[in-house]
Amino acid sequence: MNRWLLKRLIGDSEDRGRIGQAGSAVGIVVNALLAVMKFIVGSLTGSVAVAADAVNNLSDAGGSVVSLVTMRMAQKPVDKEHPFGHGRMEYIGALGVGALILLMGFELLKDSVSSILHPALLAFSWVPFIILVVSILMKIWLYLFYRDVGKQIDSAALLAASKDSLSDVIATSAVAVSMLAGHFFGWPVDGWMGLVVALLIFKAGFDVCKGTIDQLLGGEPDKELGRKICDMVLAYEHVLGVHDLMVHDYGPGRCMASLHAEVPADGNLIELHEIIDRAEQEIAEKLNIIVCIHMDPIVTGDEETDRAHAHLSAFLEKEGLMLHDLRRVPGKEQINLVFDVALPVDYKDTEGLCCRISEAAKELDPRHVCVIHFDMDFYHRANG
Fold first, then answer.
1. Those residues with Cβ within 8 angstroms of residue 1's Cβ, 6 or more apart along the chain or in another chain
2. For residues 370 and 119, what is the distance between their CA atoms, to the nearest angstrom?
3. Pairing assessment for the beta strands 368-376 and 335-343 based on DSSP bridges
4. What is the phi/psi pair of residue 46, to 5°?
5. Residue 121: what pLDDT?
6. DSSP track, 249-273
7. Domains of the chain (ranges plus CATH)?
8. Is the pTM of this model over 0.70?
């Protein structure tokens, strides 16, 4: 049904912007309709909880309007002032929606507390109750719609809206329960249910704001995306390993990446360059990511270097870590092993790790002296 609806709205277009805007437009219509229905029910029953839920739906409709506008702004082409595009406008719009949700939650919290202090039984009739049940079913559908479209175009805004819709399902169900409790048992729980709705709104607003701020500041990297990029590069002949992957997010569909690819030091430079070019082109075509790959020449075929690399790699693998760019520099009295170790961003025990690596190296040859450079493994690949 979701695909049928999108096809009716935008035809066979695969354009991410049009799909996202259509999804937001559907959200505006559904949430506005739900708000009108619940305002009517709230007026008929005098329920603070129903009125609170109506305001919540109205804020959801407003949020969809903001999402629609910012998605259109995010599609603007690059210009002199914004050479990386305007994609982050989606994140700014989502932050505005989160702030609006928090404001609505605060206002509804005040009304709910007032109702708790001055409780009254609700006027009950089956027609308003049935309308609430219908609204719950509509919100379940909207949750599934947002989720599917959000996954299809990888939209953080629509995926956040799907979570918000799910919390609305719980909130409206709480309102329906309060109506039944008042009708059958004479329990004036309307204010308490309104309080539950307000708290759910607060949580939804907090989650939206936190997730958006994380994206703007540079949140946790997408590990699955990192794995795909590394696997695609490693699939090419003569690529021995990859490391130092970084992905820069300038908004949905606007990512740039860089990484180092290890290649044989004695390989044909022109052939290796062509391989790297093909890898960059494949990633751009399949993942829509502009990537810059740096070639790291690795000495292969030297027995002592290979032994040291294998020994230290096996040791670090037990620690959940990896090394790269190992060079063996023999001297008169010692043999320097110069290499990098990639660490997770939250790794603390570098001093202890240095000692353990040095001990492992001396097990292979007492003359080994390790010269270690630590760098950040943003995608934490335990092996290359």
1. none
2. 74
3. parallel
4. 70, 20
5. 67
6. ESSTT-EEEEEEEEEETTS-HHHHH
7. 2-217 (1.20.1510.10), 221-298 (3.30.70.1350), 302-384 (3.30.70.1350)
8. no
